[in-house]
Design brief:
Chain lengths: 218, 547
């Protein structure tokens, strides 16, 4: 076993605050949608609005961080070993085969994660946030000289927002489950908390494409 | 050693990071405090309260005027006395709809037309034509006993009905607008002043033949009620008079009723005092683009006494032993009257809600029936219409007599002092009453009549509740049994959803959950097996005899 420094401070902060905001937004959002009653519609809507502004702020910081650190490159999708990764989760894992890809701070995401998170960041989150902003600012005008977003029907805005919400919930389930597929069931979560992840020794891997010198070996 | 050094480094980094985060948090808090500007407290309501707490002192005490300190033989003598000082005021009155019972306006589809009590029909006492003798109890004139009333005679203007401040004045029943014979005209004349609730209420509370029959939100209880009943008129509140909102210039009073006035000008509105942004919350202010103030602030009407909700004229005319009779419901309201038919009453009624853009289509005497139930005053509006808002209404339903051949509502003659005069209330003969009423209205009657269902809309504007009792968000934003359940054609968050998306989404979520659970179970099983296998190996090793 060796410890590799994978997740930087901001990244961990961003991950956990985004996670809690998304879960809180889901909790309040599905109440606004009428799925259940916890806070009451008025409070739920109010909390949902506040949390949504926090999330937007956080995401602006995250975009800035990804651009300035060049970390965005981690999310460029690749098909290389994608099939191997899928086959691993479907079969290899049960046979006790090792992970086909290796985690380093230069390549912290496997090809399946890359494509999933790319979709998450480029499609799912924008759909949800843009529809959410339109939803929040949706006003119909009378004689009150109020800005108007009304040519686009609210039903469609709500549809896209709901679609985003459902996909996010599915993402959440799979994502949380997938954290247990690390070296040990909790090693991924620990890594996201401490930044360091215990990974298997390199001799297990034949396909490492990264420079092992970069590893922060303990 | 390497391990220890690293741990130490990590700890130092951690302390440094925690310190930096603390500094950052404190810095942000300080900045927020420095740059945060408290919203100005919304003083609009406080300013209004201050303004309306000061009650006007009259500039003239009429009892001191010599012109009024004399004996009046007739009510017209009082009017003449008024005109000695207010020399031109009769002209203002004679230009008003309170006097003319009609108003000329451009109406979409009709062109320039006049509408008012003279020619509109309703589904209560049906209409005034041929019944003036009794209907004129609520005309601000003397002697309107038929359709030959002289609208040019200033002597017939009734100043007292609106300006009596003694609460002594009373119009006689079926006396063509003349006061009751017991009224002390001298006392009334000397008391006159600005109209009070009791003046307006003498007609507007009792329209339809009894207290709160028509409006549901205007009734005699408002002469002395609590803030909970009517926050504006409450005796323990700001105790406003009707004319505080229904202001008047040259006797042209702001505000009118959609059962007689189809157009949208010179209306009395909440916004004229409260502005379009009275709330502290922007979200609630924004609602006002589609939701009227009344929709949330009048959670129910008829809060004290019942109001009439349904009236079936088709039941009228039953007699017991050849005589008309009446029956009461459990609250003491008439449920049946031989002369009028059967009624339904209700108290503490949650309003219905409709889209309304401020214009209405009135059913005028002589119109052809276009749809059933006949819309006595169809309120125009829809979600798509930018000028439309959701308003609360009382919908009064009923049935009434119509001509089966000409397909129009019949104006029957209802009232007469004597039997044998074709009046339904005396003779209980629909055919004779219809013949006489339609003849007076100048319309043909085929002789074939039936009863047709009708609906009449009464926008609910009064009996505003204190703000704490306003309709809450969840009373509309709810899946089932919301107040706006019947208003469709638009997306209401919390009520509406895309069924296909919700269903597919729900099952996709459940399948995903099952998917990861089974994946996990397989992993656990395999791990256990592997574990056992490894343990067996270990125990195999241990079982080896020691060397």
């Amino acid at each position: 076993m060796q410890k590799v420094y994978i997740y930087k401070g901001f990244e961990r902060f961003w991950h956990w605050s985004q996670a809690s905001l998304i879960m809180f937004l889901a909790l309040t959002g599905f109440e606004v949608h009428g799925s259940y009653h916890i806070f009451g519609f008025e409070k739920a809507a109010e909390f949902h609005r506040t949390a949504s502004w926090l999330l937007i702020g956080l995401i602006i910081f995250a975009i800035f961080w990804h651009v300035t650190t060049g970390e965005w490159r981690q999310y460029v999708p690749t098909t290389k070993q994608l099939k191997a990764q899928i086959m691993y989760y479907l079969f290899g894992m049960f046979k006790g085969e090792p992970h086909p890809t290796e985690k380093t701070h230069l390549s912290k995401l496997n090809p399946l994660q890359r494509i999933t998170y790319f979709g998450f960041k480029v499609v799912l989150v924008p759909i949800t946030i843009i529809s959410g902003i339109l939803y929040m600012l949706y006003k119909t005008i009378d004689q009150n000289d109020i800005i108007v977003i009304e040519d686009y029907p609210l039903a469609s805005i709500a549809f896209w927002h709901m679609l985003g919400a459902i996909l996010l919930m599915i993402f959440l389930v799979v994502h949380v489950y997938m954290t247990t597929t690390g070296t040990t069931p909790t090693s991924n979560i620990k890594a996201m908390m401490t930044g360091y992840e215990e990974v298997e020794e390199e001799e297990h891997h034949s396909s490492t494409e990264n420079d092992n010198n970069q590893k922060d070996i303990v | 050693m390497v391990q220890n050094k690293h741990t130490e480094n990590t700890r130092n980094t951690m302390y440094r990071n925690i310190f930096l985060v603390l500094i950052a948090v404190v810095a942000i808090l300080i900045l927020v405090n420095v740059f945060h500007k408290e919203d100005n407290y919304n003083l609009k309501l406080e300013e209004l309260k201050r303004e309306y707490a000061i009650k006007k002192i009259p500039s003239v005490e009429h009892f001191k005027l010599p012109a009024l300190n004399k004996v009046f033989k007739t009510p017209q003598d009082v009017t003449e006395a008024c005109l000695t000082c207010h020399t031109e005021t009769h002209k203002e009155i004679m230009a008003s709809s309170h006097w003319n019972w009609e108003r000329v306006a451009y109406v979409e589809g009709r062109g320039i037309s006049s509408a008012g009590k003279k020619n509109v029909m309703n589904n209560f006492c049906l209409g005034t034509s041929s019944n003036e003798q009794t209907c004129a109890k609520c005309h601000i004139g003397f002697g309107m006993s038929n359709n030959h009333f002289d609208f040019e005679n200033a002597r017939n203007v009734d100043c007292m009905v609106c300006h009596d401040n003694s609460e002594e004045y009373l119009k006689g029943a079926s006396m063509a607008g003349y006061p009751d014979r017991n009224v002390n005209l001298e006392e009334v004349a000397q008391s006159v002043g600005s109209p009070k609730k009791s003046n307006c209420g003498s007609c507007h509370f009792f329209s339809g033949g009894g207290n709160n029959v028509k409006h549901g939100d205007l009734e005699s209880a408002q002469l002395s009620c609590s803030r909970e009943v009517d926050v504006h008129m409450g005796a323990n509140g700001i105790n406003m008079e009707c004319v505080a909102c229904h202001t008047a210039e040259n006797h042209q009073i702001k505000g009118k009723l959609y059962s007689v006035s189809p157009d949208n000008n010179n209306r009395a509105t909440c916004e004229q005092c409260h502005t379009t942004t009275p709330h502290l919350s922007d979200v609630i202010n924004r609602h006002s683009s589609k939701v009227s103030c009344q929709a949330c602030h009048i959670p129910e009407y008829a809060k004290v006494n019942s109001t009439k909700m349904a009236w079936k004229w088709s039941d009228a005319g039953k007699l017991k032993d050849g005589k008309p009779y009446e029956e009461d419901d459990s609250l003491g309201n008439h449920s049946y009257m031989s002369i009028k038919g059967s009624f339904k009453w209700a108290r503490n009624v949650k309003p219905d809600y409709v889209w309304f853009n401020g214009t209405a289509e009135l059913y005028l005497l002589g119109d052809t029936i276009k749809q059933i139930p006949v819309q006595m005053n169809k309120l125009n509006g829809s979600y798509k219409d930018k000028a439309s808002k959701i308003i609360p209404v009382k919908i009064h339903v009923g049935d009434q007599i119509y001509d089966k051949v000409y397909n129009r509502l019949i104006q029957p003659k209802l009232y007469s002092e004597n039997q044998g005069d074709s009046a339904f209330w005396m003779d209980f003969n629909w055919e004779e009453a219809s013949k006489a009423g339609m003849a007076r209205s100048g319309l043909p009657f085929s002789g074939k009549y039936g009863f047709v269902e009708t609906e009449m809309y009464w926008p609910v504007n009064h009996m505003v509740s204190p703000k704490e009792q306003a309709v809450g968000c969840a009373e509309c934003h709810t899946r089932v049994n919301g107040r706006l359940e019947k208003l469709t054609g638009f997306y209401l968050p919390g009520r509406d959803r895309h069924m296909a998306l919700d269903t597919i989404g729900f099952w996709a979520f459940i399948l995903t959950l099952l998917g990861v659970i089974s994946h996990g179970i397989i992993r656990i099983i395999i791990t256990i097996r592997k574990d056992r296998y490894e343990k067996q190996i270990i125990s195999y090793d241990e079982d080896k005899p020691l060397e």
